[in-house]
Specification:
By secondary structure, the chain is of the alpha+beta class. It contains five helices and four strands; from the N terminus they run αααβββαβα.
């Protein structure tokens, strides 16, 4: 239960900080004459850095097992990169929406005549927009508890074999 509550706290703080930093980022970039909509991803990087130092300073991350945490995050990223979107949504004459993530979609790219894979779409230069959904929380919780179960099962089996 602590893991679920900690994950919800992380998500809540992440979206509050993302809103604040995103607005500040938009105002700063648009005031100096830069199209701020093309650089919205910068706010996500700022928020991850702020959250990293906040969690280290407050000690909130002690609930998670570090090996399971990073394995879960690695699998989420790996599966998002490797599993293609086989049924993109056709939005306009040339714009398609490609959603990535397994089992829940976490990232959607709006792109002109794109590819089914995430990396080729990112480097194609034809991205017209993007969206990040709450599916990342579901994927994280699902993978974390899956790997936690496997780790506990193997350690219990190993302990029983020693006896």
């Amino acid at each position: 239960m602590k893991i679920l509550l900690e994950s919800l706290r992380f998500t809540f703080i992440f979206f509050i900080l993302l809103t604040i930093v995103g607005v500040v980022n938009y105002l700063i970039l648009s005031s100096i004459g830069i199209n701020a909509e093309n650089y919205g991803w910068i706010a996500i990087i700022y928020v991850f850095v702020i959250l990293y130092f906040l969690y280290k300073h407050k000690g909130w991350s002690s609930v998670y097992n570090p090996k399971i945490l990073w394995t879960s995050v690695g699998f989420i990223v790996l599966l998002s990169l490797l599993i293609p979107d086989l049924t993109p949504e056709h939005l306009h004459t040339t714009i398609y929406a490609y959603s990535f993530g397994f089992p829940f979609h976490i990232f959607t790219l709006y792109i002109d005549n794109g590819s089914n894979f995430l990396l080729s779409n990112i480097f194609s230069g034809g991205i017209t927009g993007w969206n990040m959904s709450m599916g990342i929380l579901g994927n994280f919780i699902l993978f974390y508890f899956f790997f936690r179960f496997i780790l506990l099962e193997f350690t219990n089996n190993a302990a029983n074999e020693v006896r």
